[in-house]
Amino acid sequence: MATPVVRYAPTSSPDLSHARWGVLFGQFIAPLPERYATTGDFVRHGRAAARALTAAQAEVPLGGVKILSPVTEQQQFLCQGVNYASHVRESGLDPSDFPFNTIFTKAPSCLTGPYDDVVKPAHVKLLDYEVELGVVLGRDLHEAATVQPDRLHEVLAGVTIVNDVSARCVQLPQMQFYKGKSYRTFGPTGPVLLLLEEDEWRRWPELHMRLTVNGQVRQEAYCGEMLHKPHQTLSELSGLHHLYAGDLVATGTPAGCAARAPGKLAMFVTRHFMSDATKWKLFIKGNLRNPAYLQPNDVMELSIRTDDGRLDLGMQRTRVVAG
User: How buried is residue 61: exposed, middle or buried, by Cβ count under 10 Å (0-12/13-18/19+)?
Assistant: First the structure.
């Protein structure tokens, strides 16, 4: 049975040195006896203890603690782009033109908890959302490995919810994914790190993602729609550089983002008759009229679960505030 692990701290103390790990049972947490400074430490040394906890040991009320990101800032935050055909198309692109896996990174310092505010910097005019399935490494990979689709349990520890918050007015005109996606608070993650058993890993394609803004559904898709599956991505990444237990890979987002490509005629005109500076100036000006972009006081709710509820990553709820 899947184990919903949370990282938490007393509401009375914002000092993260007091952070603990535990297993969620309804509205109570069964605390792990040991402390783990990083997600990597927990994944390496605490998973067996977490799986052994029972509801009878759940003594910490959920309402008395602050739930933190289950991925700590010491881990790598790796991301896949254009990994759903629906999102490729809404970006004005053809999925057949992307046979390769698009990889980028976010600064780990953007990681925040599942209920923390998302701060919209004053200069950011086009703030967007992206619901994504996050997979967390279960062991180090320091050399190239071929990960088999039915052996994910040998490489991954669990799954979590990621919101890849993005400043489109920085990311797109500057062609800077890292800059546009790495502002502090642009990586809400959690609430749980759901540890999966061997047979449960086979069900990852059934995970149903959903994101709403102020109660309106904006994104909804099944994870099985990914173009580049987790085993393929892990195999490719392991051939590039070291991966470590506890590292996070956000696996891409489906259609429904605020950012949309202009019509084909407009794209033809801007591509052939305008300078890049003029094109992006018009892009920003035009998109300022799009009400789908996030504004202060907007509330995002993200969920990922199988339709039968057997695998449930919880509900992430964040509010946008002005920076």
Answer: exposed
Cβ–Cβ under 8 Å, residues 226 and 84 = yes
In the chain, what are the domain boundaries? Answer: 3-68, 77-322
User: What is the Cα–Cα distance from 105 to 119, expressed in whole angstroms?
Assistant: 20
Question: For strand 77-81 and strand 248-250, is the pairing parallel, antiparallel, or unpaired?
Answer: parallel
pLDDT, tens digit, for every residue of 129-181?
999 999 999 999 999 999 999 999 999 999 999 999 999 999 988 889 999 99
Q: How many whole angstroms separate alpha carbon 238 and alpha carbon 101? A: 13
Q: Name the residue among 104, 245, 288 with its Cα closest to residue 181.
A: 104
Q: Answer yes or no: are the C-beta atoms of 279 and 261 closer than 8 Å.
A: no
Helix (H, G, I), strand (E, B) or coil at 264: helix
CATH of domain 77-322: 3.90.850.10
Instruction: Reduce the DSSP state of residue 206 to 3 states and report it.
Output: helix
Instruction: Output the six-digit token pair for 224.
Output: 């099985």
Closest CA to 295 of 275, 323, 273, 314: 323
Give me the pLDDT at residue 275, please.
62
Q: Which residues contact 218 (CB under 8 A, 6 or more apart)?
A: 129, 211, 212, 256, 257, 258, 292
Question: For 92, which DSSP code?
Answer: T
